[in-house]
Amino acid sequence: KQEVTQIPAALSVPEGENLVLNCSFTDSAIYNLQWFRQDPGKGLTSLLLIQSSQREQTSGRLNASLDKSSGRSTLYIAASQPGDSATYLCARSNSGYALNFGKGTSLLVTP
Amino acid sequence: GAGVSQSPSNKVTEKGKDVELRCDPISGHTALYWYRQSLGQGLEFLIYFQGNSAPDKSGLPSDRFSAERTGGSVSTLTIQRTQQEDSAVYLCASSWDSSRNEQFFGPGTRLTVL
User: Fold this and answer.
1) Minimum-distance CB partner of A97 among B91, B101, B107
2) Shortest CB distance from A49 goes to which of B56, B93, B102?
3) Residue A83, SS3?
4) Residue A57 above 60 pLDDT?
5) How many angstroms separate the Cα of A13 from the Cα of each of A10, A58, A76, B48, B71?
6) Is the confidence at residue B1, as pLDDT, over 60?
7) Within 10 A of A27 (CB to CB), how many other CB atoms are there?
8) Tag placement on chain A: N or C end, fewer CB within 10 Å?
9) Taking 70 as the threshold, does the pLDDT of residue B110 lie above it?
């Protein structure tokens, strides 16, 4: 079974800091990688999707990169805000459909 | 436009009862997925539908679980003879098709089996 690991499991930072969330995966035969955020008691909100042919994607203050050779993806959040507090999940697919999820990084941004 | 919707949002049932969970995908999306999120297990894939093709049921944990998708749109996940270990949040997602595969999730159904 392909493994997806997210480090750290939890992170607390003061408002305004830039931060990096890490995701690593076994098996470089990746189809795409998707980052989500999940607020308590809610579903998943898609943040960024990186196709296997791409190296990064950007949306506003978020930037996600993909390095297939090392089996890593990072999510960079610039100028963090309290509203960014949530759990961030990365998920990969190597077959074009079913996503294999990491267990997430719980982020707290303090005012 | 409207996102993925799921009903009910919460379901409490007694052990041994059958339950049905419903998912309405985003209009026009041909692919539909069911996942389960439980404490300690994270998110796990259950089943996948693509158009009129036979579904991929490889993630279903037992034969008590089944799903159907009518008319290529609405899907129902059925759990028969529920067990306490079935308690979890059941999430549905849809995408334009499997090649593009950016999946959009619904709010989930929280199932509690007493």
Assistant:
1) B101
2) B102
3) helix
4) yes
5) 10, 22, 14, 38, 48
6) no
7) 14
8) N
9) yes
